Amino acid sequence: MIDGIFSDELSRDFSTAIELAQELGLTRFELRQMRTGRVPEIADDELRETLEICQKQMLSISAISPGICKCLPNATTRQETLDLTRRSIDFARAVGATKISLFGFRRPSATDVLHDEGADILSAAVSDICSAGITAALENWQSSFVRSTAEFIELADRIATDELKLDWDPCNQVAAGRPLGLDLPVRLRERIASIQVKDGVMNDGRLEYRPLGTGAVGWGILVERARAIGYAGPWTLESHSPLKVRATKDDLERFNLLWRGGNS
């Protein structure tokens, strides 16, 4: 069952997002974009306000998504990436988050490959996060070098780490034109940190978000396959709809129907 959401899917104002989420029965929150910027680069007063809300309401901030390695490989240096990683670790510790999400660098074109320097930067960021006792999870993204579960496994093997986990976004994988591989291997079960829940279709080369179960993902089958491999981790709602509250409520109801065995 879904118990978590990216807070900015409801509102960039954390207090507002929490109030709306709790009305929907959601109790686990991931932080990404906030009122004054993307974490960890938010204003000090907003951080203090966020910490006060968390402490007062005993909220669970499960993860943060600071956008580490979401740029082109040549748009950052190793030191700049590790500086952002360190600030993200400090932020995660402050809010009690146990996971930091990162990306596999933006791919300049479909034929480009990730060079050793980029892989080394990613490896160093993952190492720093894990050394801090925090889970490092890479999100597959259609514009990056890691668009699918298969490319995630290739990267993890390349940088020789069993510590890197996957924030699997099936919709992003569909948008990249990569088959979902619904015969999910047991090996992947051990690597998935969370499954991000949204739906959509490609239209003229662009991803158009749709209500859950009406896009190209095939969520009913995916839920069955995830259960078949014994996946017991979190499912995080990320509707990406301008309707925000209405879309979140509808997608939550749709997912719960699929979870109970309804039609996709």
Can you characterise this structure?
With 264 residues, the chain is α/β, with parallel strands linked by helices. The protein has one domain (4-195): TIM Barrel. Helix content is 39%, strand content 20%. The protein contains 9 helices and 12 strands. The strands form 3 sheets. An 8-stranded parallel beta barrel has the order 1-2-5-6-7-8-9-12. Strands 3-4 form a two-stranded antiparallel sheet.
Quick recap of the structure?
With 264 residues, this protein is α/β, with parallel strands linked by helices. It is built from nine helices and twelve strands. The chain has helices at residues 14-23, 44-57, 78-95, 116-131, 149-158, 170-175, 186-189, 219-228, 245-259; strands at 4-6, 28-31, 33-34, 37-38, 60-68, 99-102, 135-139, 165-168, 192-197, 199-203, 206-210, 235-237.
List the helices and strands and how they pair.
Blueprint: E1 4-6, H1 14-23, E2 28-31, E3 33-34, E4 37-38, H2 44-57, E5 60-68, H3 78-95, E6 99-102, H4 116-131, E7 135-139, H5 149-158, E8 165-168, H6 170-175, H7 186-189, E9 192-197, E10 199-203, E11 206-210, H8 219-228, E12 235-237, H9 245-259
Parallel strand pairs: 1-2, 1-12, 2-5, 5-6, 6-7, 7-8, 8-9, 9-12
Antiparallel strand pairs: 3-4, 10-11
CATH topology: TIM Barrel
Q: Characterize the biggest β-sheet.
A: 8 strands, parallel, barrel
Write out the CATH superfamily name.
Divalent-metal-dependent TIM barrel enzymes
Shape: globular
Quaternary class: single chain
Run of helices and strands: EHEEEHEHEHEHEHHEEEHEH
How big is the Rg?
Answer: 18 Å
Low-pLDDT segments: none
CATH class: Alpha Beta
Instruction: Give the fraction of residues assigned to helices.
Output: 25-40%
What class would the helix/strand composition place it in?
alpha/beta
Strand content: 15-25%
Number of strands: 12
Individual helix count: 9
Strand order of the largest sheet: 1-2-5-6-7-8-9-12
